[in-house]
Amino acid sequence: MEPTAWPGVFRLGRDLFTVNGAPGHRVYGEELRTERSTEYRKWDPFRSKLAALLVKSPRQLDLAPTARLLYLGGAHGTTASHLADLNPDGRLFVVEKSPTAFPTLLEVARTRDNLLPILADAQLPERYAADVGPVGFVYQDIAQRAQARIFLENSSALLTPGGRGILMLKVRSVSQSTPARRVLNDACRELEAGGLRVLETVDLAPFAREHHAVILRG
Ligand SMILES: C[S@@+](CC[C@H](N)C(=O)[O-])C[C@H]1O[C@@H](n2cnc3c(N)ncnc32)[C@H](O)[C@@H]1O
Fold first, then answer.
1. Atom number in ligand 1 closest to CA 47
2. CATH second-level architecture of 44-217?
3. Mean of the pLDDT values across residues 24-37?
4. 189 CA from centroid of ligand 1 (Å)
5. By CB count within 10 A, which of 17, 66, 102, 129 is most buried?
């Protein structure tokens, strides 16, 4: 197991791994591997867009740049579990609105003190802003038309100045017919008009088709 340029992320062959914050537990059927008394979990870029971003982008990203992180669209906790494990001393607030996915997310939280699930609609950050408080990092993976607006509203409510963010933009949820490049450009313009700086965009194909990671600074 070799360390990578991303703190807390390891590589074995072509596969990525993070240290398992809940030894003995899998979250999504992923491979577990123990080396020198440390258990690692394989991080699958076909199941997690954040892992896909690491595989696709040569840029060095600090994935746990702060003690407090907000994750919008946590679903069953696949990516959130890895992000929580990358930041064992921090707190990862995970917003998910689906009552179907939420029980699985709660199970993941039971084995990780630093993952705090919130059953809420990310379009209404005022409902959880007081519980979450200021964060230094916002991650969003929500398949909705107004993805950029949701990211902006959460950032303006909760992201500290100079904080970082990643929006996983699902092009076809914004428009079925507009060319992908135009959807991406429009989203970037909207985010910049809202006061955020777009640092980089990364096409996540072939791991996630018609998805672009938009890396931002507040
Ligand atoms: C593509 S899945 C997220 C996958 C997850 N990020 C991962 O990598 O493990 C999108 C999730 O966003 C949730 N979602 C959609 N709209 C939402 C909203 N307005 N507020 C909160 N969650 C929302 C959906 O219920 C779904 O679970």
1. 8
2. 3-Layer(aba) Sandwich (3.40)
3. 97
4. 23
5. 17
Q: What residues are paired with 217 via a beta bridge?
A: 164, 197
How far, in Å, CA of 101 to CA of 55, rounded?
27
Q: Which residue has the tokens 């200021």?
A: 134
pLDDT of amino acid 57: 85
Query: What residues line ligand 1, using a CB cutoff of 6 Å?
Result: 48-49, 72-73, 75, 78-79, 95-98, 101, 121-123, 141-144
Domain ranges of the chain: 44-217
Cα separation, 59 vs 121, in Å, equals 32
Q: Which amino acid is residue 88, in one-letter code?
A: P
**pLDDT of amino acid 61:** 76
pLDDT score at 58 = 64
